[in-house]
Amino acid sequence: MKRSRFTEEQIIGILREQEAGSKTADVCRKHGVSSATFYKWKAAYGGMDVSQARKLKVLEDENARLKRLLADALLDNAVLKEVASKNW
């Protein structure tokens, strides 16, 4: 997945700038993002504080790590079942 050139703190700052009264088009042009990206950010980070965004990032990383561990365990389990089913 492509890394964003903006951090969560910057994204929340951009969203707050628009909430303060600036027009969406002006904010997008100022920061060099498309309106589609802006609204995607708004759906993901709208109403969040910086601390909440950091917690979300930590939880997402932990979730990804746990999914990898589960996938490895399921693969090991499948291999062991296949070996056990063969007649020696």
Automatic annotation (TrEMBL):
Alphabetical list of InterPro entries matching this protein: Homeodomain-like_sf, Transposase_8, Transposase_8_domain
GO BP: DNA transposition
Native source organism of the sequence: Sphingomonas turrisvirgatae
UniProt xrefs under Gene3D superfamilies: Homeodomain-like
Name of the protein described by the UniProt record: Transposase
GO molecular function annotation: DNA binding; transposase activity
